[in-house]
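Researcher: Here's a chain I'd like modeled. Treat it as a single chain, no partners, no ligands.
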Amino acid sequence: ELMNDQEGKIKADLLHNIGNVYLEKGDLERAETQCKLALDNSTSALGALLVHSTLSQIYFLKREPANSIKSGLTALAYADSLQTFGHLEDIYFNLSRAYALSGDIDSYQNYTEKWNAVKDSVFSLESSKTYNDLEVKYETEKKEQTIALQNAEIEQKEAELKINKAVTAISV
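Model: Modeled as a single isolated chain. Structure tokens:
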């Protein structure tokens, strides 16, 4: 049974990826079909979240706001159950566009604000990571330079010691 779950996950992932390829090519009907097949084979909440998020985008592009909203809210429910932050930016973006298309301005504004907040948080997290990576790189290079300088000083002292021994040997 574990193998069947694994096979189902792989099949669902492949179908979802094919759906994304069709989406990128602008073939919305085939993209929708592949994503629905992916949902039929999905064995994970994360997989379902991703497929519903893609379906929300497809339905928006097909100018079907009710279906886009339904898929977006389903994706959001999965995100809440998984307590995942990573996919909220896309979900909120899709929901804001779908609500705008439906004419529900209040919901559009609500999800646009949420999208902007998450987008800013993601940017802030990425900036912090970049800063931390640069700081670690700087500190590492600084330590390497210190070690190189200490090695050079040791070599110089060893050379001076050899010279002193040679001078002493010659003097004796």
